[in-house]
Structure prediction request, 317 residues.
Amino acid sequence: MRMRLYRLDPSAPNLRTVRAEEQVAWRKRYCVGQALPMWQIAFDGLTRSAIRKVDEAILFAGERLDVITRLPDPGIYCMVNDTSRGDTDKDNPNPSRMVALIEAKGSSFSGVDGDALLQSTLVGSAEKLLAGGNQAAIRSRVFGELRDGLKLTSFTWHKPIPKEEVSGYREAILNIVDGPERTAFRVNGRPYDHDRIDAVLPLGKAEEWRAISLTENHPLHIHVNPFQIVSIEDSRGSDVTDPNSPAFDPDYAGLKGEWKDTVRLKQDLRFAFRTRYERFTGDFLIHCHIMFHGDHGMMQNLRIAAEGDMPTEHGGH
Ligand SMILES: [Cu+2]
Prediction:
C-alpha cells in the first residue's frame, strides 16, 4: 500500500451515497490538491534515527510504519491507497482507492509551519516528561537531538553495528523454481523442513547478512532479532536508497542505517544488513511474508546458541 493524505473537496457528495463502481471517479475528482506531509517516526515498531518527512506512507506485506501527521484545517480528509506509481500490472489494473475518510474538528492550523510545530511539540513534551531534578543531562541531550534535524538517537533501542563488530556472514537467497509437477519455493536452494535447523547462530555476536531474490519480489521477515540496513544496491552496485544515484528507487528512500524486521527484496537487488544475537536463545523463523510463499517452502529454521552449546554437526550442513 502507498498511502497518501488529501483534503476532500467540500462540494463532494457523501461517499455513502456513491455506487461502488463510481467510487474510483469520485476519489479522483474530490480527493485533490497536494498530498499532505507525514513524519515517519518508526519502521516495523523500531524507532528511526531521525524523523523523516514524506508525502507517502509505503507498506509492503508484513511491514509496519508509524507516522505523525497534522490536519491543518477543520474538514474532511481522504486517506488514499495511491497505486499510480510502481507495481503496475497491465492485466490486473489496480486503481487508487479510498482507505479512510478522516474528519478534523477544532481550530485551523493553516499557515503554521509543520516542521516547526512538530519540533516545538516534541521538545515541549520532552520538557514535561523529563522534568526531574536529576535528569538534566538526559534532557539537554534529547533537546539537542530534536533541535538538530529531529534526531531520535536517544530513543532507538538498537545501537548501530559497525563493521568491526561483524564476526561472520550469512546469506539468504530466495527463489521460485518451476518443476514438472509443482513449483518450489526455496531459501538457499532448499524448501523448508520442519525437522531441520538451517543455521546455528552465535549468541552475543553480530553478523552481516546478504540477501537477494532471484525470482519475483519477496518481503523477507526475520523473527526475534531486527536488523540494521547496511546497503541496498542494484546488480551494478549502484545505491538504490540514494536520491542522487541513477538507480534510486523511492521505495527504499531513507532506509539506509535504519532498523527493520521486514524488508522487501525486489528481484535482483543486493541487500546487506547486520544483526546482533543478543538476548534470545532458541529457535526462530525467517520467511517470506507473502504467506503462500512461506507455506510452500520459502522459510528457514534458525537457532541461536551460546558458544558451549554449539553442536559440532547438525542437519543444516
Ligand atoms: Cu515470497
Observations:
- The mean pLDDT is 91.
- The domain at 163-305 is CATH 2.60.40.420 (Immunoglobulin-like).
- DSSP finds four helices and 19 strands in the chain.
- The longest helix spans residues 114-129.
